[in-house]
Amino acid sequence: MLSEFSLIDRYFAQRARTNTQRAALGIGDDCALVSPAPGEMLAVSTDMLVEGRHFFPDIDPHALGHKALAVNLSDLAAMGAQPLGFTLAFALPKPNEDWLAAFSAGLFDLADRFDCELIGGDTTAGPLNLCLTVFGSVRQDVALRRDAAQAGDDIWVSGMPGDARAGLGMLRGEWQVSEQDAAHFRRALEYPEPRVSLGLALRGLARAALDVSDGLAGDLRHILERSNLAATIDVDSLPLSPALARLPREVQLQCALAGGDDYELCFTAAPAQRAAVEAAAQQAGVRVARIGTMSALTSPQDAPAIAWRDAACKPLNLKLQGFDHFHAD
């Protein structure tokens, strides 16, 4: 039977040691030692995934390994940071070897793609709970921050938001879709693609950025609040996948604007940078769409808010908010 230390060594430490050493000291000591490149700062982010809250109990463990790291890499992408390494701490009900083999394969498949080294962690017995901390590096002057947007900036989004929420609704039985669309939605939910290449390409072009983890409507407000601005969004400019476009319009909007788990990037840039942003996205192999504009508050007493419009500039009365972990279904 696997002990705690044989589990760590067999499924995680051995694989980590085969990777290029990005840390000065990785697995095997009381602490890892990580140093960014000269002139760069360390970017650090932590995410927790809890069974029954962030993923279904029957999720494919390979997909769970991928997603656990992907959501953290997405935070680095939103900062324009280059991945360096990560730690993994998790509670596991029992040491199932087939589960561990698949989970670690999904984790390291993604880690290897982004040259992101496992440098430490911990494990214990308990309800399935994953906590990853990821480390990256970025120069302070090009880091993409939430408080750097300016009035007049274009608002952009990558990919096609809403597919992950459509997948969640499908699994919950909220709507019925074809077998082909079901496979598309499920992959969007379980295998999100962190936009690391796009985040790196946007350094020096974008002003403010974040990743869409809790829904575009809720996450964009973080930029508005930190930058003290308002926004106008043209909902007809939202890029929708063909699968999402086959669902009813109200479902499309709910998924694309308020659905979570997309891990796309929402960012702002000056209008003069439009061609450069398009070129950066093409270089990164990611689709981007311009969906709105930042504006100054009309008075100091006004709260940052989003005005929703259609393509004809007609106001839309949409009551949307992002995902809230303490007020979720």
UniProtKB/TrEMBL annotation:
Enzyme class of the recorded protein, top EC level: transferase
Record-annotated PurM-like N-terminal domain positions: 28-138
EC numbers for this chain: 2.7.4.16
Residue numbers binding Mg(2+) 2: D47, D75
UniProt-annotated binding residues for Mg(2+) 1: T46, D47, D122
Positions bound to Mg(2+) 3: D30, D75, D211
Residues that hold substrate according to the record: H54, D261, F323
Binding positions (Mg(2+) 5): D214
CDD domains given in the database record: ThiL (cd02194)
SUPFAM superfamilies named in the record: PurM C-terminal domain-like, PurM N-terminal domain-like
Residues the record lists as binding ATP: G121, D122, R146, S213
Segments forming domain PurM-like C-terminal: 150-295
Any one GO molecular-function label of the UniProt entry: thiamine-phosphate kinase activity
Top-level taxon of the source organism: Bacteria
Residues involved in Mg(2+) 4 binding: D30, S45, D75
Catalytic activity: thiamine phosphate + ATP = thiamine diphosphate + ADP
Biological processes per GO annotation: thiamine biosynthetic process; thiamine diphosphate biosynthetic process
UniProt pathway: Cofactor biosynthesis; thiamine diphosphate biosynthesis; thiamine diphosphate from thiamine phosphate: step 1/1
Sorted UniProt keywords: ATP-binding, Kinase, Magnesium, Metal-binding, Nucleotide-binding, Thiamine biosynthesis, Transferase
Miscellaneous notes: Reaction mechanism of ThiL seems to utilize a direct, inline transfer of the gamma-phosphate of ATP to TMP rather than a phosphorylated enzyme intermediate.
Family: Belongs to the thiamine-monophosphate kinase family.
Stated role: Catalyzes the ATP-dependent phosphorylation of thiamine-monophosphate (TMP) to form thiamine-pyrophosphate (TPP), the active form of vitamin B1.
Protein's name according to its UniProt entry: Thiamine-monophosphate kinase
Species of origin: Paraburkholderia acidiphila
